[in-house]
Amino acid sequence: MLIKLVLVGRLKDRAMQARCDEFAKWLSPYAKLEVVELPDSTVAKEGLAILKSLGRERNAAVVVLSEEGREFTSVQFAEKLGSYDRKIVFVIGGPYGLAPEVKQRADLLWSLSKLTFTHELARLLLFEQLFRATNILHGGSYHNP
């Protein structure tokens, strides 16, 4: 499985970065992971940078994290992840949201929750859910239904 994360901004909290790195390490037996961090800017400039990054991924499935997206249980998300037969690109915007053009480019808008999270916390949740989903798909013991 090939997974690319396109993320706006850098994690400033070292503990949160360490936790993301840990989940990325745990994910490595199940998926090849590429992480692209784009600089914080205006929503419009971030949108252009995201679209430029996505332009290189013409055949990939694009999943954009957005509060108005579809919600999944962890098992449903694992099934969705497993249904893709091509590279999957996940996008998390900056603190002020995403340009409409980025949302229009998405094959799927995904909401982590009805709650609002900082983009840094959303990043950590994405890493955890990617590990959880791939672990579910491979019959691992991390997820307890």
Topology of this structure?
Elements: E1 2-8, H1 14-27, E2 32-38, H2 43-55, E3 61-70, H3 74-83, E4 88-92, H4 100-105, E5 108-110, H5 119-137
Parallel strand pairs: 1-2, 1-4, 3-4, 3-5
Helix pairs in contact: 1-5, 3-5
Could you characterize what this model shows?
The mean pLDDT is 95. Helices cover 43% and strands 22% of the residues. The chain contains five helices and five strands, in the order βαβαβαβαβα. It has a five-stranded parallel beta sheet with strand order 2-1-4-3-5, with helices on both faces. It is globular and about 40 Å long. It has helices spanning 14-27, 43-55, 74-83, 100-105, 119-137; strands at residues 2-8, 32-38, 61-70, 88-92, 108-110. It has 145 residues and is an alpha/beta fold. The protein starts with a strand and ends in an 8-residue tail after the last helix. The protein has one domain (2-137): 3-Layer(aba) Sandwich (Alpha/beta knot). Helix 1 packs parallel to helix 5 (119-137) and helix 3 (74-83) packs across helix 5 (119-137).
